[in-house]
Amino acid sequence: MKFSYNAQVLCEGALIPLYKKLKRNDTVNGTVELLDAHLRFHAGFENTFDLGTHRPAQHKYVENEKNWYLSMNRNIKGFPGIENNPTWCRIATEDGMVNSNYGWCVFSPENGMNKKNQINPCDPKNCCNPNNDNCLYDTSQYDFALKQLIDNPLGRQSIIYYSRPQMQWEYNDGIHAKSDFTCTINTQHFIRKTADTDYLHYIVNMRSNDAIFGLHCGDFPWHMYVYNKLLNDINKYRKNNNQSLVHAGEIFWNAASLHVYERHYKLLTNIAEEYLDWQKSEENDS
Fold it and tell me: What does the domain layout of the chain look like in residue ranges?
């Protein structure tokens, strides 16, 4: 068993420290937790990765979740691998509504930046139905973030917001969700030059993050998808305009609470101990 670069980052920066806290019985509210955790992944590597033999890459689930996200449908019903998932079922309303369809947050004009009625809501090009509140927007979070990187590559305003102030009430109102306070707060994106080469860097800010069942098989693959789309779209524009291309940079991962739940303590222990054995064998071979 070999641990890839990003798997090592997660193990060294999160799972091993969590495992050590668990061994000290340093737990809180049914979790072992790191506050203000910071990880640094490399964007040029895999979207999904193995965490040893006890936690392989979750390719099937990642694909199912991505398909649902890209539908931008905030209802989980009718989506294989999602509608019967225990976590999504627990946080959804009885009719299946949630807040945290990340595709809706990123790509839907409903979560956009510019109101069409500030332009001309009666123009068919701007609004499918002037009386439909769902058609009042024409710019998604992604559109805005990409435009900022293209128009002002050295700027600091390329941001995608996932959470919003209304979440404080909507997360458990039984209308938008039953218990779904979106875990990702926002992402921010920078193009910076190192040794005459432009790199795209991506900062993730998490409110709450399950280190194994959240970060490993859900959040990281999704953010890598958005990252790669930004990188490809930027380079498509640059190529068409005879500009130098941007290269894959770093994923800076900030989690206010990075944790593992009690029901997964055994899995955490298995992953950590296998990793420590692998690390020891690598040192002996070198």
Answer: 5-285
Q: 13 or 47, which is more confident?
A: 13
Residue 139's nearest CA partner among 169, 178, 112 is 112
- 54 is written with which tokens? 């006890």
Over the stretch 167-220, which tens digit does the pLDDT of each residue have? Answer: 999 999 999 999 999 999 999 999 999 999 999 999 999 999 999 999 999 999
Beta strands in the chain (DSSP E): 31-42, 159-161, 184-194, 197-206, 209-210, 246-261
CATH 3.30.572.10 for domain 5-285, yes or no, is: yes
For residue range 33-90, what is the model confidence (pLDDT) as tens digits?
999 999 999 998 889 999 999 999 999 999 999 999 999 999 999 999 999 999 999 9
Q: What contacts 10, CB < 8 A, 6 or more positions away?
A: 39, 41, 51, 211, 215, 216
What is the chain's Cα-based Rg? 20
Phi, psi angles (nearest 5°) of residue 247:
-105, 160
Q: DSSP labels for 200-248? A: EEEEEEESSEEIIIIIIIIIHHHHHHHHHHHHHHHHHHHHHTT-PPEEE
Which are the catalytic amino acids? 183
Task: Return all residues near 207 (Cβ < 8 A) that are at least 6 apart.
Answer: 163, 181, 182, 183, 184, 185, 256, 257
Q: Is residue 57 a contact partner of residue 279, using CB atoms and an 8 Å limit? A: no
Q: In 3-state terms, what secondary structure has residue 66?
A: helix
